[in-house]
Structure formats: C-alpha cells, structure tokens
Amino acid sequence: MNASSCDVAIVGGGIIGLSCALYLREAGHDVVVVERNEPASGASRGNAGALAFAEILPLASPRIIRKAARWLFDPLGPLSLPPAYLPRIAPWLLRLWRASWPERYQANIRAQVALIGLAQEEMLAMLARTGLDRHLHTEGVLEVYEGAQRFAAAQETARQRLAYGIESQPVQGAELADLQPGLSPRFTHGMLVPRWRNVDDPQALAVDIGLQAQALGARLLRHEVRAIEPAAQGGRLMLDDGTALQARRIVIAAGAWSHQLSRPLGDPIPLETERGYNTTLPPDALDLRRQITFSDHGFVISPLSCGIRVGGAVELAGLKRAPDYRRAQAMLDKAKAFLPALRTEGGEQWMGFRPSLPDSLPVIGRARRHPDIFYAFGHGHLGLTQSAATARLIRDLVAGQAPAIDLAPYRPDRFF
C-alpha cells in the first residue's frame, strides 16, 4: 500500500479507534488511523479510569425515568438538560423512555452483559499480551449510601448484578471506615464491587495502545475527515487538506461526532452527547484507597496516577453549547463535604463528550448500504470498558469471521 491508500482506515483516535487499530494490525491488516487532534485527547483523556465490568444497567431504566423529572432541569444536578436544548433532543428522549419499558430494559441488560463479559475477557488478555497490565488496578469500587433507606433502594441493583454472576459485598460501620478512612459519617452503608477494575491513567493507557499499534506498523494521520465517499469496495476519506485516503474497509469510531459521518451514508443514527465534567486535583489531595461512587449524587472520585479525579454527572446539551463549569465545581464542593480531608486547591477542570445512544448500547456493525464500512461508536460511559471487546468484534467483521457474540442488539439499523 502507498501513502494514500490502505487496507483499513479508522476514523477516530480515541480508545475505541486505537484499540481497533491494535487488533487489526495484530491480524495483519494495513491500518491507518485518521485523527484530527492528538490521540486520546477527547473523552479518552478525561474519564474516571474505570473498567466497569459490573456496570450492566442501562441509563434508560425505570429508576432513572422516575428521577428524571426532578433532575433534568436542575442545572447542577446529576442529569441536566438546558431548556433551550429540549426541542432538539426531544426525539432522543422519547427513544430513551421507550428503551426503559420493562421488556426492552431487560433485553438491553442482557446485551450489556454479553458485551461486558467479552470486554473483561478481551481487555485483560490484551493488557497481558502487550505488557500494558502495568496500568491495571484491582481494588474494586466502593458505592456509598446515606442511611439504610437509600441503601435498601440500591439492593435492586445488587440483585440484578448477582443474577448475572456479579457479586457485591455490603459493608457498614467500621468496615466501611476501614475501606475509606475519613468518609463523612452521613454515609452509613456501602457496597464493594470487587469485579470492578481501574487503570492508573486512562489517557496514558489509550496512548500506549496506540503506540503498540504503531510499533506493529499502523500509521497515524493528523487530519479531519470531511466526508466519506463509498465505492464498490471500501471508499475514500476526503481530508481537510484536500487530499483523499483510499481504503478497502473503513471503520467509523469518531465518538460523539460519528453520526455526522454515518448520516450521509444512509444511517441517521440517533447519537446524542452526554457532556461529562470533572476536576483533577494533585495526587496528594487525598489518601484515596479506591474509586468511590456517590450513586445518589451522580459522581465518582478516582485515584489516578495523574491526580485525584472528581467527576461524572450527565449534561444533555449537544456539541456546541459552551461548557458550564459550575457543574464541575458543584461536584468538587460535594466531594469536599463527603471527604473533609480532601484538599481542593490546584485542580484542573475538564469537560468532554460521551457519545450516547438512547438504549445505552453502542453501534457495532456494518453500514446498511455499504458492507465495507463499519461502525464502532456510541459507548456512552463505557468506552474504556468496552474498547477491547469492540476491537475484537470489528476484527471479526473485517475478517469475515463469525463475531464472538451475537451482534443483533448493537446493529446500526435497530433504530430505523
């Protein structure tokens, strides 16, 4: 292949695209990743570092729908929606509501279980064979609750996890204090989820995966893809400098911008953007033993090698609205109240775009009209968690092999 052609072109250099590049290059394909910014500089940079192998419950759930009316129009709440954005997002919200219907909800849980089961298997194997397991931590996650009543309400989540073999350990009193010294006494109960894993720095891991792919021969082009022109076999990526890259196969893994490329191809996939906020404090800001989830407040605090990260929540506001960093500050203020020893000086605020579909499942599969174009996007909060599984499935599809799991729940045409 010459510089203007390749076997597989991957649009997007985040954790999904870089993982696909590694898997495809390991399989012997000539791979080019096209990324307009530095690799892993978007959502892959600012996430909480969780390999959330216990996170099987979709956002579109009866529990969230019940709380949504109270949360949505609180600008600093766990789930917020600027009123001016409501007309644009209304069709997506309607799909979200339908996805929460009991039969669909249970089907979506089964689909998450299948994908996350593959994700755990593939991620741990990939980290081991590349030597990147040095990034991995296994302390689990501690979910904390204020009082017995809030904890009792969380038991349904624990029961649903246990039904799929995911264990949780209830803790309270001195045991809870031992797991995280200095936690405010308002948190009387907790749930330790051992199957949860974390990485020391999500951006560093994604960059290292990309470097592994490049060491095997994958190429990186720093360009924006303006359009994709399909052909009888593959197609051409039209780049921002007026040049084109010819590819036999194309993988669209551009995160929150992916639908802008899929729509002209005949797939108007209803992708929305969960804007996430965080503040990363210096590493010595707190003696944090493991990631803590404040479930009723919609945020987490994570120990990373780059610092203590306080972040989460969901703001449904699209790609163009200016960031509202009051949300990051509100979470930081709560973290200080919940962990009084936390030093909040010297933090760096961040906002990023999580690509989200209304049923909380990603799109993994072929474009409807173009069998040599593949989609790998829409992972919401679980991009890091599901990255290796997605790469495995894309590798299977490109090779013409039977996918490792049934792809019907993730097919691009499920919304049409």
- The N- and C-terminal alpha carbons lie at a distance of 37 Å
- Number of helical stretches of at least 4 residues: 11
SS-based class: alpha/beta
Residue windows where pLDDT falls under 50 for at least 5 positions: none
Q: Main β-sheet, in a few words?
A: 9 strands, mixed
DSSP strand (E) fraction? 25-35%
Helix content: 25-40%
Number of strands: 20
Please, what is the average pLDDT?
Answer: 94
Our Rg estimate from Cα atoms comes to 21 Å
Based on Cα principal axes, name the global outline: globular
Pfam families: DAO (PF01266)
Protein name: FAD-dependent oxidoreductase
Keywords: Oxidoreductase
Domain FAD dependent oxidoreductase: 7-397
Give the topology, please.
Blueprint: E1 5-11, H1 15-26, E2 31-35, H2 43-46, E3 50-51, H3 62-71, E4 79-80, H4 86-99, H5 102-130, E5 136-137, E6 141-145, H6 147-163, E7 169-172, H7 173-179, E8 189-193, E9 197-199, H8 202-215, E10 219-222, E11 225-230, E12 235-239, E13 244-252, H9 258-262, E14 272-281, E15 291-294, E16 299-304, E17 307-316, H10 326-338, E18 348-356, E19 363-366, E20 373-377, H11 383-399
Helix pairs in contact: 1-8, 1-11, 5-11
